[in-house]
């Protein structure tokens, strides 16, 4: 470990500490590398290690599977619509809360976080029993309701943080120059929070794409990607396909979140 | 020079509405909150309320239908049975074990990040800790199914070390053992620790970063050996971070049904019990009563955590 | 200066702005005329900024009425008022270029593009920032941003321009330069400028008239000369320039009555004890307690008995610092014209 300063004020860690650190990091990362490796194995039937050979044909095969394609399509659609709803609701909430001090403000902040803070099973079963009570069928829209609800908080957090950093006198200046409330929102507020909404939206997308617990309770016969993978876990024949699907899901959640991370940090001065 | 540019015509409707909202900030607040509150109130709070109410109903054993009358029967006769209490105990103990194990693994890493890593390295380590969080939950659970499988990586590794006998012996231990690592309580425990580990690392790291270097130096300056400084100064200051991380590991384990379902044997966790009860058994009141337990446990846990200062460490 | 044809640009009638118990602005009565450079002067928290915001429309009065060119402004939001503001922190839009910033008001009013282009260029030249249309605010210095804010407000040809301590963030030399430029622009454009400041020297330099604020009330309105030469209250005497406030026994010795009056340090002459003087003068003896040499002039602190100090400022016409410091401890006679005594109310 090279130190960057002339006078080395950073103390040296013991060998034991370094080993423990390395061990923890390996523990965190090896499994992911393992599954990526398995997506290329030629062994169809088992998880034998080391893999007998390597191939990329599963990546092609997977698109011939109608259930995979429909699961992928459903996940993408649900994530897109839920993100859209979460963007609208989250932005409205952020605009309401970021500057006002009113009775019940803390309660509302707590309410927004609750869907993520409470265990997924609580949210899932609550939604399920409520939906069955009203007699509505479980469908695409019931999944979306669940997803949008817990995605609100990611948009809200990002938007509020950015709004708080925005200089308020800009808004007064805009009104002073003749822009009405709505025009001010369109020309001044929105451009200022645009990248934070983008980041929040991407986080919401990844959250929705990855979600399995609440989805299991609010879906009817449909399968999203995570549910599809979950169902595959008990089927030994399609192992390679499942591995490829796993790699897809890793990419679909990992990439948006990395981008969102970049967006939020880019604008931090 | 004073050419008036203000339009002489009366303001348009959107401008008038805008003016109204400007003059009446309370109305503007209400308008902004209307849609989100409606959504959250109806879909979320409404559902939660319905769930809680359901736990006070009961399932009629004969007709298989839910009797909508308030009573504590579901709690008394169905929830608090030995078998169900077994489930609660199992879940609670696993959650505790997971919390302790996570804390033990997380602490050295968090300590290294906070005290010894240079600025650049620390950024890299943050990324490395967050990365697994960013990839899919179900996939991460799935990978362990692969790794723990009988023909999989871990077994290959253990056989290579000549420890297959030890593995057999461990798997033969009742309760935590099973036919293979991928179908056992021990395996479940390992996966839980793996999945929630980042949630434990980050708050501990945050708490340790807040310990001023000067305090540690002062301790050494006053003659304390490193071990003493660690026990009496660093650990107590890092404690709120540990508690904060434990909130996540504990709560997430309490409610999870997927991991025990995939990796576990046939003995149930709370989550699975809820899933089965509301599904095939159609016993929604019992399922609802079951969910009340983790919520209640977490409410108490959160109060304790707040008392221990965990919320300042989040 | 168009003080000869006083049409009222802004009239505030008995305006109050209360926040619960706090009276930010209390029973304000004020007339500001077209084409004036009018300053609102006062310390922090005196209500001058609140007064400005009431005119702009960011605050609504709790009671009283505000008239802009005869029109009642109650309930009218800022975007419907024909005034523009230059904000203390300039409030430039960071996501727009300089050109877009300046064009903003015109864009909202849907002025045709060619016209916008022409006026923006013209305005940037007037504030002496030609050719900077495509820069972003973050690339400009403080002084340049301030001019962009000015251009952005002026390009809309408002009848009244409000300026909220616009020069506060600039260093001394730049501030003095901007004071001259602002005054020049105001006279060229011919509109009413309402200027908020806590710097009394700035207000005296630039204004046609000014109002002195204290604790939400206006203590005096007048031209700089009036306010300086004939302060009405002790606060005004002490805030605008420095002043000696003489009361009690010492006042009696000098004027025969114990009513408090103010006398400016530069009006007092240091004479030799025993010197004779006319009836129109008054005098008092004292000992020089402290001397501060300021280059152009010297400030003397003279103890005149009863524990009272009188500050005297004298230009260093013949004396230098050596002379100044040597006079410490000397017995002197302070002489000045009685006409310069200003009786004060409310002290």
Keywords:
heterotrimer; A: 269 residues; mainly alpha; MetI-like fold; 2 domains; 0% strand; globular; disordered N terminus; B: 314 residues; two-stranded antiparallel sheet; 15 helices
Structure overview:
The complex is a heterotrimer of chains A (269), B (314) and C (347). Chain A has eleven helices and no strands. With 269 residues, chain A is mostly helical. In chain A, helix 6 crosses helix 8 (181-210) and helix 10 (225-232) runs antiparallel to helix 11 (239-266). Chain A folds into two domains: 16-58, no CATH class; 72-266, MetI-like fold. Chain A has helices at 15-38, 57-61, 66-97, 105-117, 120-134, 140-165, 169-176, 181-210, 213-218, 225-232, 239-266. Chain B is mostly helical and 314 residues long. Chain B has a domain at 74-137 and 200-313: MetI-like (MetI-like fold), CATH 1.10.3720. Helices cover 75% and strands 1% of the residues of chain B. Chain B contains 15 helices and two strands. In chain B, strands 1-2 form a two-stranded antiparallel sheet. In chain B, helix 11 (226-255) packs antiparallel against helix 14 (284-307) and helix 13 (270-278) runs antiparallel to helix 14. Chain B is globular. Chain B starts with 12 loop residues before the first helix and ends with a helix. Chain C is α+β, with helices and mostly antiparallel strands and 347 residues long. In chain C, 28% of the residues lie in helices and 31% in strands. Chain C has helices at 48-56, 98-108, 113-126, 142-154, 172-189, 200-206, 224-229, 234-239, 248-255, 321-326, and strands spanning 8-19, 22-33, 37-41, 63-68, 71-72, 83-86, 160-164, 192-197, 209-214, 217-222, 244-246, 261-263, 269-271, 281-293, 297-303, 309-315, 331-337, 342-343. In chain C, helix 2 (98-108) packs across helix 3 (113-126). The model of chain C has no long low-confidence stretch (mean pLDDT 91). Classes of the chains: A mainly alpha (269), B mainly alpha (314), C alpha+beta (347). Chains in contact: A-B, A-C, B-C. At the A-C interface, helix 7 and helix 8 of A face strand 6 and helix 2 of C.
């Amino acid at each position: 470990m090279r130190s960057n300063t002339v006078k080395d004020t950073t103390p040296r860690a013991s060998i034991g500490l370094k080993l423990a650190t390395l061990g923890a990091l390996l523990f965190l990362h090896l499994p992911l590398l393992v599954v990526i490796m398995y997506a290329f194995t030629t062994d169809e039937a088992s998880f034998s290690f080391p893999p007998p050979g390597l191939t990329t044909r599963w990546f092609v095969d997977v698109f011939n599977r109608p259930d995979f394609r429909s699961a992928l399509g459903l996940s993408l659609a649900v994530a897109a619509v839920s993100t859209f709803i979460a963007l609208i609701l989250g932005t409205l909430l952020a605009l309401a809360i970021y500057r006002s001090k009113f009775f019940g403000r803390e309660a509302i902040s707590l309410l927004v976080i609750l869907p993520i803070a409470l265990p997924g099973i609580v949210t899932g079963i609550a939604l399920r029993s409520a939906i069955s009570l009203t007699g509505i069928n479980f469908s695409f829209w019931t999944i979306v309701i669940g997803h949008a609800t817990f995605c609100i908080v990611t948009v809200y957090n990002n938007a509020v943080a950015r709004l708080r950093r925005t200089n308020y006198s800009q808004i007064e200046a805009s009104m002073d120059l003749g822009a009405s409330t709505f025009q001010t929102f369109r020309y001044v507020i929105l451009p200022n929070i645009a990248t934070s909404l983008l980041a929040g939206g991407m986080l919401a997308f990844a959250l929705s794409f990855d979600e399995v617990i609440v989805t299991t309770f609010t879906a009817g016969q449909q399968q999203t990607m995570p549910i599809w993978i979950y169902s595959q876990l008990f089927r030994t024949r399609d192992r390679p396909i499942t591995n490829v699907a796993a790699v897809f899901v890793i990419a679909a959640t990992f990439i948006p979140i990395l981008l969102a991370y970049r967006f939020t940090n880019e604008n931090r001065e | 020079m004073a050419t008036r540019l203000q339009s002489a015509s009366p303001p348009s409707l959107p401008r008038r509405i805008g003016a109204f909202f400007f003059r009446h900030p309370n109305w503007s607040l209400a308008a902004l909150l209307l849609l989100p509150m409606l959504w959250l109130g109806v879909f979320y709070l409404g559902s939660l309320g319905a769930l809680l109410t359901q736990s006070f109903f009961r399932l009629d054993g004969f007709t298989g239908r839910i009797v909508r009358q308030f009573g504590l029967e579901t709690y008394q006769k169905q929830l608090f049975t030995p078998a169900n209490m077994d489930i609660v105990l199992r879940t609670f103990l696993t959650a505790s074990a997971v919390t302790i194990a996570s804390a033990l693994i997380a602490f050295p890493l968090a300590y290294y990040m906070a005290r010894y890593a240079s600025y650049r390295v620390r950024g890299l380590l943050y990324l490395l800790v967050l990365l697994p969080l960013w990839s899919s939950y179900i996939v991460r659970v799935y990978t362990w199914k692969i790794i723990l499988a009988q023909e999989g990586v871990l077994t290959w590794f253990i056989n290579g070390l000549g420890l297959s006998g030890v593995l057999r012996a461990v798997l033969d231990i009742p309760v935590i053992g099973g036919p293979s690592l991928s179908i056992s309580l021990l395996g479940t425990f390992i996966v839980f620790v793996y999945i929630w580990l980042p949630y434990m690392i980050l708050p501990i790291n945050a708490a340790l970063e807040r310990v001023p270097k000067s305090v540690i130096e002062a301790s050494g300056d006053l003659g304390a050996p490193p071990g003493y400084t660690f026990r009496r100064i660093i650990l107590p200051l890092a404690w709120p971070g540990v508690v904060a991380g434990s909130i996540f590991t504990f709560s997430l384990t309490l409610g999870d049904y997927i991991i025990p379902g995939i990796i576990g044997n046939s003995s149930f966790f709370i989550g699975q019990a809820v899933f089965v009860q509301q599904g095939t058994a159609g016993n929604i009141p019992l399922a609802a009563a079951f969910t009340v337990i983790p919520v209640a446990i977490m409410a108490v846990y959160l109060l304790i955590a707040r008392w221990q200062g965990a919320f300042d460490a989040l | 200066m168009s003080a000869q044809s006083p049409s009222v640009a802004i009239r505030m009638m008995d305006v109050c702005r209360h926040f619960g118990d706090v009276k930010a602005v209390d029973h304000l009565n004020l007339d500001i005329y077209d084409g004036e450079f009018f300053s609102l002067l006062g310390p922090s928290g005196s209500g001058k900024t609140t007064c400005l915001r009431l005119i702009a429309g960011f605050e609504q009065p709790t009671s009283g009425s505000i008239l802009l060119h005869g029109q009642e402004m109650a309930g009218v939001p800022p975007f419907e008022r024909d005034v523009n503001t230059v904000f203390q922190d300039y409030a430039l839009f960071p996501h727009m270029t300089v050109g877009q910033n300046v064009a903003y008001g015109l864009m909202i009013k849907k002025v045709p593009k060619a016209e916008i282009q022409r006026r923006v260029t013209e305005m940037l030249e007037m504030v002496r920032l030609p050719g900077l249309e495509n820069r972003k605010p973050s690339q400009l210095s403080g002084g340049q941003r301030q001019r962009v804010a000015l251009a952005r407000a002026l390009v809309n040809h408002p009848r009244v321009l409000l300026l909220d301590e616009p020069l506060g963030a600039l260093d001394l030399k730049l501030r003095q330069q901007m004071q001259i430029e602002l005054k020049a622009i105001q006279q060229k454009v011919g509109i009413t400028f309402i200027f908020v400041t806590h710097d009394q020297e700035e207000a005296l330099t630039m204004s046609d008239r000014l109002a002195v604020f204290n604790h939400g009330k206006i203590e005096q309105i007048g031209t700089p000369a009036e306010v300086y030469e004939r302060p009405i209250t002790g606060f005004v005497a002490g805030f605008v320039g420095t002043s000696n406030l003489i009361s009690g026994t010492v006042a009696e010795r000098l004027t025969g009555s114990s009513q408090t009056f103010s006398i400016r340090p530069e009006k007092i002459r240091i004479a030799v004890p025993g010197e004779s003087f006319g009836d129109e003068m008054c005098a008092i003896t004292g000992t020089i307690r402290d001397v501060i040499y300021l280059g152009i002039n010297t400030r003397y602190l003279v103890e005149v008995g009863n524990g009272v100090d009188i500050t005297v400022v004298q230009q260093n016409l013949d004396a230098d610092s050596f002379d100044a410091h040597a006079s410490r401890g000397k017995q002197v006679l302070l002489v000045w014209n009685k006409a310069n005594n200003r009786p004060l109310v409310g002290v």
